[in-house]
Amino acid sequence: MPPPFPSRAEIEADQLEQLRALVTELFxxxxxxxxxxxxxxxxxxxxxxxxxxxxxxxxxxxxxxxDQAAHPPFGSNLTYPLAAYTRFxxxxxxxxxxxxxxxxxxSWAWLRELWTRVFTAAGVTAADxxxxxFSFGPFLGFWMAFESAQQLGCLCLPTGGMSSAARLRLLLxxxxxxxxxxxxxxxxxxxxxxxxxxxxxxSRVRRILVAGEPGGSLPAVRARIESLWPDARVRDHxxxxxxxxxxxxxxxxxxxxxxxxxxxxxxxxxxxxxxxVSPGETGELxxxxxxxxxxxxxxxxxxxxxxxxxxxxxxxxxxxELALAGGILGRxxxxxxxxxxxxxxxxxxxxxxxxxxxxxxxxTVTTRGPLAELALAIEPAADAGxxxxxxxxxxxxxxxxxxxxxxxxxxxxxxxxxxxxxxRRWHRAGK
Length: 431
Ligand SMILES: [Zn+2]
Description:
The structure is a single chain. This protein is of the alpha/beta class. 32% of the residues lie in helices and 23% in strands. It contains 11 helices and 20 strands. The chain has an 8-stranded mixed sheet. It has a 4-stranded antiparallel sheet with strand order 10-11-12-14, with no helix packed on it. Zinc ion (ZN) binds next to loops.
């Protein structure tokens, strides 16, 4: 009987084989990569994974956006004739123009297989009833999650276009066991349940699969969600439109994400130099999805900051796949430097959730030349008590953790925006 978990050597041999097949398929069929690689003088052969990392250039989102602007509407990063494509999705456009992404039935099936691994690692089986608290727009993750659960044999409950209260009633009335949403929205649903007098103690939800924001691997965010949802465990994972599903949460270590290396060749680099970081150091995740031949990316700069585990030995869960301690730590493009201190939004989120008493918050970044300052507006939770004392407590927690005095003021309940998709809590002013 074969061992249940492939060794590092087996993983890498399989990656090299898939990578060679992918690169061969792109030349000359894929106009974007044929042009890009010829411009850099790179030949379409791959001697080893190290050779690929050494010779092949990175791909950036800016390049893909420019390509779509030059070749509207879908760009030239298509390996097959347009008629072969059946799926259209686009990115949320949080950081600029939305990127359109097409898939063929074959590339879509490849993505769905990877997503199924996310569910399996979280213990989801055909016996589960899975509720999708999404709007079902053109964002890839919704459809991917829904179709993968269906393929696993789960009963799948869509809730697009429903209010939060209606979604809660649907999941209580129909015995939902698994909820898929963003970490922010899991908190929001807990808040609405309290407002509506709905008892989550009678919910059968045993796991909440979260993605879309770094919060899913932050201990304080997880603890807050699990306190609102009795008997449910938070399971994090992540992916993005350009590369598909990437990680699943280690079944043995909460907050540790494993990269699905059966589908991705992963590198972690220093954003400034492009050179690999040492294990245990923070760097940017660079991915090459190995089976999405129809709309590929080679060495894609994801912008996600991660810390690869120090030793690439087998994890306690058994896998040899790359482990990312603390999940996605932040984004290369969202860090703010305040008086010499690097402030990541995920760190602020963790501090606020650990302090407790905050229903929602908003951060304003004011920049004057090279100097940035932060100010925080917080909306106290219903059970938070004295608002002035809460603001003082949050200010103290920020100062202790970051060594910065950041002004904190409270605003009325319900006055800050709520989010179903990626939360946008950071705003820039004074530019
Ligand atoms: Zn593990």
